[in-house]
Automatic annotation (TrEMBL):
Gene3D superfamilies per the UniProt record, alphabetical: Cobalamin-binding domain, Tetratricopeptide repeat domain, tm_1862 like domain
Protein name: B12-binding domain-containing radical SAM protein
PANTHER family per record: ANAEROBIC MAGNESIUM-PROTOPORPHYRIN IX MONOMETHYL ESTER CYCLASE-RELATED (PTHR43409)
Organism: Jiella sonneratiae
Domain B12-binding: 20-171
A Pfam match: Radical_SAM
Cofactor (UniProt): [4Fe-4S] cluster
The keyword Nucleotide-binding is annotated on this UniProt entry: no
Coiled coil: none
Entry keywords, A to Z: Iron, Iron-sulfur, Metal-binding, S-adenosyl-L-methionine
Sequence ranges assigned to domain Radical SAM core in this UniProt record: 221-447
Length: 562
């Protein structure tokens, strides 16, 4: 039987047009290591008898290059040319398009067509969260796509690569679905690896790790040398949060790597690849709390820093866990709170969390010098203004180090998607708009235009105007976040304003003057920022006056010019 080649392609996670337009100041989010593809490569390389080679093209990297070059040339043509060059150089038998999010949908057909235009005999496949949940729609709207894998791909791809008749296998296999299968009423099912230790160590050398090195949430380390690498020590989540599509990809039964295997992998990542920051990206790290504590204690011996960027369960954090975090080098965790309203948590999201648990968790983390971030989701059907105000009050009361406010996205495979479709709530059906900064849901109590403004102003209020770390005099904490903001968004007036105040409080006069001048310049020339200051009672001139005479000599010409 001839040996087979497989090319993985990752379409951009984001709508390229939102970032390549010269008139916008959007900053491309950091990319996470394509852990799923690395896992499949490791498993297939060991277990697939007829596999010759696997390669990867990540178009997020291409998109970042175009953004760095400020290129507004046709990105579609650039993507197509890159794929066809890879096809010509590699000559794969299969091309697998890995699409995680709704926003990747618009690229799939174009990529599949580029493959078929190059060689119609290449079998085009898709997998990941989006195709797993929306396989029928994707096969209907992507005519150049041959088949879709339901859920995790290690076992289905092994069976496909080793099949004598791949076309027949795609029709008969429980985890593959084709148009023929859809027409026959087939419902694809998962094929899971029960013991994650069966997956061999991953080949990080197939990536340029420098492309995946800026996802950290602890902004103390933004400008410091580091090597971030990700791990998923478990798969699956038993909860059914309304906005989550996890069950369509990993199921509800949680499967684990052994603690010993995790330690071996992390040690190898540190020693062979220079990792200094371990990004633990489990969907539910504390499903087995005793295992989680054993793992943290073991990682504490490895001399690395850790972060939890995906969100951890608040109810699991007590003084013991916070102390273990600190011992294990955990510098920052994101807390999966989502709402400050018990009604929204319990009756809309269906999340087993009570608000009273949040403050003790934050205080335990602060006691052990672990930064606390929080994820908030606004705009769920059934959420009212009073619930959103409860959320703002909760954010101010609990004193997180940084707050991330997102807008609800009806992800394919989530209960939220079904609710929105059944009730006609999706305001903008274009999948390019299905990102956390755009409101696409219009439902009773949810106005998309007002919601986008409310979400942004909430972040201004809790991260700047009501910044907790500044209130308690921890300017050493606040300053790193403010620096990160102005580095990404040089015209962020509040960022410069509060950064100037941090520098002033620390006795750093030169930097205080510099950022005060920048703040005044933006306020003088930008009507919107002045309106935000007026709306929220931010008297920026009076706030900056104590910085001193050096500011006055710099600021007066700016005011006159404005």
């Amino acid at each position: 039987m001839p040996m087979k080649k497989l090319l993985f392609v990752i379409p951009p996670y984001f709508n390229a047009a939102d970032y390549l337009d010269r008139s916008r100041a959007a900053v491309l989010p950091a990319f996470t290591i394509p852990y799923g593809i690395l896992s499949m490569e490791a498993y297939l390389t060991k277990h697939a008898e007829n596999l010759a080679e696997i390669r990867l093209v990540d178009l997020n990297v291409t998109l970042k290059r175009l953004l760095d070059e400020r290129s507004v040339a046709s990105y579609e043509a650039v993507f197509r040319a890159e794929i066809q060059a890879a096809l010509a150089a590699f000559a794969p038998d299969f091309v697998g398009i890995s699409a995680l999010f709704n926003s990747s949908f618009g690229y799939v057909q174009a990529l599949a067509k580029a493959v078929k235009d190059h060689d119609p005999a290449i079998v085009t496949l898709a997998g990941g969260g989006l195709p797993s949940a929306a396989y029928q729609m994707m096969l209907e709207r992507c005519p150049d796509l041959d088949a879709i894998c339901k859920g995790e791909g290690e076992l289905p791809l092994k069976d496909l690569i080793d099949a004598e008749d791949p076309s027949a296998l795609l029709v008969s296999h429980r985890s593959w679905i084709t148009r023929e299968g859809v027409a026959a009423g087939k419902m694809p099912g998962h094929s899971f690896i029960a013991d994650l230790d069966d997956i061999p160590p991953m080949n990080y050398a197939m990536l340029n790790l420098d492309n995946y090195n800026n996802r950290g949430i602890d902004k103390r380390y933004t400008d410091q040398p580091k090597r971030e690498m990700a791990i998923h020590t478990s798969r699956g989540c038993p909860f059914l949060c309304v906005f989550c599509s996890n069950p369509s990809l990993h199921g509800r039964d949680v499967r684990f790597m052994s603690v010993e295997r995790v330690v071996a992998d992390v040690t190898r990542m540190r020693d062979d690849y220079g990792m200094t920051v371990l990004m633990i990206e489990d969907d539910h790290f504390f499903h087995d709390k005793e295992r989680a504590k054993r793992l943290l204690a073991a990682v504490a011996e490895l001399g690395i820093r850790c972060e939890f960027p995906n969100g951890v369960a608040v109810y699991a954090i007590d003084d013991e866990v916070a102390a273990l975090f600190s011992r294990a080098g955990v510098s920052a965790v994101a807390l999966a709170v989502e709402s400050g309203s018990d009604h929204v948590l319990n009756h809309i999201i269906k999340k087993p969390l009570k608000k009273k648990l949040i403050r003790p968790a934050v205080e335990a983390l602060r006691k052990h010098d672990v930064r606390s971030h929080v994820f908030i989701v606004l705009g769920l059907p059934g959420e009212e203004d009073e619930h959103r105000e409860e959320t703002v009050a909760m954010l101010i009361e609990n004193g997180f180090d940084w707050v991330h406010v997102y807008l609800a996205i009806p992800i394919y495979g989530s209960r939220l998607y079904d609710i929105c479709v059944d009730n006609g709530y999706i305001e903008r059906p274009n999948n390019d708009d299905f990102v956390v900064t755009k409101a696409v849901i219009r439902a009773p109590g949810v106005d998309p235009e007002k919601l986008e403004a409310f979400a942004y102003e909430t972040q201004l209020r809790v991260n700047f105007i009501e910044n907790h770390t500044m209130k308690i005099g921890r300017y050493d904490v606040a300053i790193h976040y403010m620096r990160n903001v102005v580095a990404k968004y040089p015209d962020h007036a509040f960022g410069h304003l509060y950064l100037a105040l941090c520098h002033q409080a620390r006795g750093e006069a030169h930097e205080a003057v510099r950022h005060a001048a920048s703040a005044l310049e933006v306020f003088a020339t930008n009507d919107w920022w002045r309106s935000m200051a007026e709306r929220h009672g931010v008297g920026y001139e009076a706030m900056l006056a104590p910085i001193g005479g050096a500011l006055a000599t710099m600021a007066e010409p700016i005011r006159l010019a404005g």
